[in-house]
Amino acid sequence: MSEDELIIIENLKKIYKIKNVEFPALRGINLKIYKGEFLGIAGPSGSGKTTLLDMIGLLDSPTEGKIIIDKKDVTKFDEDKRAIFRRKNIGFVFQSYNLISYLTVLENVELALAAAGYPVSKRKAKAEEILSMIPGMLELKNKKPNELSAGQQQRVAIARALANDPKILIADEPTANLDSKTGEAIVELLRKLNEEKGVTIVMATHDPMMMKYVDRLVYIRDGLIEKEVIQK
After folding, report:
1. Which domain of life is it from (predicted)?
2. Residue 229: which residues within 8 A CB-CB, separation 6 or more?
3. Domains along the chain with CATH numbers
């Protein structure tokens, strides 16, 4: 295993079963993701993008195959060990922002810090530090989500995802609910975090405008990798 390989995926398969009918979502994915890489995963709806991200993020288990993250075979972990590993290593950004409506921006980030096991006495200062990394967000710290634009809410979601200082940030269609200008600003922010913080980012997208920001683009169709394009 190369020192630069952070994630190794071997013959990954996922079959969902509904009323004894099998639906193969992934049909044998082989992929290496490198430390500090900004990887894009593209493909039509139903191609397996989200399923692959769920596997990398330990939100679901494969039917067959292996995922090695940071030299650990995470497919062997039980649920408790998976939860601990997620909490210590992985941040998530989804197309729905999943913010808690009755909490302020600062409190939403503090809650994520609590989940990551951060000491109570240091949460507020750490939450402010994280928000200050994202342009324009610290001054909105006392706002509630319904007082923010969609782009601002997604920025809060990104701040929350950074609460555990993740090695890996998984972004599943993070610009799907945004206009193109706001979407580009969000992906530029992810690119900045990737370059300045060294966070490895795996982003699924179907938007051609967003694909130009990634280092490498993996195209998936029908649960298989169709092609890879190195862009940077």
Report:
1. Archaea
2. 216, 217, 219
3. 5-230 (3.40.50.300)
Give the alpha-carbon dihedral of 79, 112, 169, 98, to 10 degrees.
90
pLDDT for residue 1 is more than 50: no
- Tens digit of pLDDT for each residue in 92-149? 999 888 999 999 999 999 999 999 889 999 999 999 999 999 989 999 999 999 999 9
CA distance 136 to 190: 15
* CA separation for the pair 6, 52 (Å, rounded): 16
Give the separation between CA 66 and CA 165, rounded to whole angstroms.
25
Residue pair 218/40 in contact (Cβ under 8 Å)? The answer is: yes
Where do we find the tokens 């302020």?
Answer: 104
Q: In what order do the strands lie in the sheet with 5-18?
A: 21-34, 5-18, 64-69, 72-73
Task: Give the C-alpha distances (Å, rounded to integers) separating 118 from 16, 155, 161, 170, 178.
Answer: 37, 21, 14, 21, 31
Listed in sequence order, the residues at least 6 apart from 93 whose beta carbon sits closer than 8 Å to its beta carbon are 154, 157, 158, 161, 169, 170, 171, 172, 174, 190
Cβ(169)–Cβ(161) below 8 Å:
yes
**Side chain identity, residue 90:** I
Q: What is the dihedral of CA 191, 192, 198, 200, to 10 degrees?
A: -20
pTM of the complete model beyond 0.90: yes
Q: Is 126 left (phi over 0), alpha (psi -120 to 50) or beta?
A: alpha
